[in-house]
Specification:
By secondary structure, the chain is of the alpha+beta class. 35% of the residues lie in helices and 15% in strands. The strands form 2 sheets. Strands 4, 5, 6, 7, 8 and 10 form a 6-stranded mixed β-sheet that branches. A 4-stranded antiparallel β-sheet has the order 2-1-3-9. Helix 6 runs parallel beside helix 8 and helix 7 packs across helix 9. It is globular, with a radius of gyration of 22 Å.
Length: 275
Amino acid sequence: MNTHLRTALDQAASGVPVLPLRAGKVPFGNCRPCRDNACGGRPNMKTPGPCECPSPCHAWAAASTDPATLTGPAWALAWKQAAAVAYHPGGIGLTVVDLDHADAVAWACRTLPATRTVLTTRGQHWIYRGAMQSANAVRPGVDIKSTMSYARWLGPGTGTMTVLPDAVRALVVKKPSPIRPVSVPMPAGGEECRHRTPVYLERGIAMAEQRITEAAGGVHATVYRTFLAVLSAHGRCGCLTDAHAARLFAAAQTKGETARHCTDAWSNARTALGM
């Protein structure tokens, strides 16, 4: 048994969901279609992407505490080639503030409450009790790794772990980005829309917001389908405004979508409709 697998099994026995990483801190695909990161490294059960495996086969979604899974045939070659062990912080109710260089560490020392710290190659991991949305580059040299993310296991660290502060949560709370102009054609002569009423439009936007807000999984796909439905129903009569689009973007970003994903989904929906 190699060192990485032994470390993984020790952590799994403590209830920490783990997985192997190959060189470059990239997860293995433990099924043939995902070998060499051919699918883009995105498990299809919680995030969209080209992976079409029937179940999570890699990355954070494959992190496990089951020794039979970790030592099974699916991971056998991965552990032989592994360069490191990773774990899913959000899976055990933790958040890792990944400080990538000395300036980021200095910022954390000035700004965040002390907690358990782990030394990394270039900086530190500050670990807090409490899970939250993950996000990269929330400020220079700072990433947040919690739900739907993984972090390298570099040891238990030192210090007493404290409760996740609002200052960390606030790092991923952003105002909705400016919305691209909808630029839909108006009815001939600029007349008032005859087949839609303000009440109809408001109800449609409210229902779209609710659909996004209540999405339990596949958020990105839900956002795209919702944008498509709204534009299909209201995008050609001239009644849909930037304010309506901003409400939909805000709902999507509250569910964890990035501003870029929102903009891309909106643009793709318009293209699909020939707008």
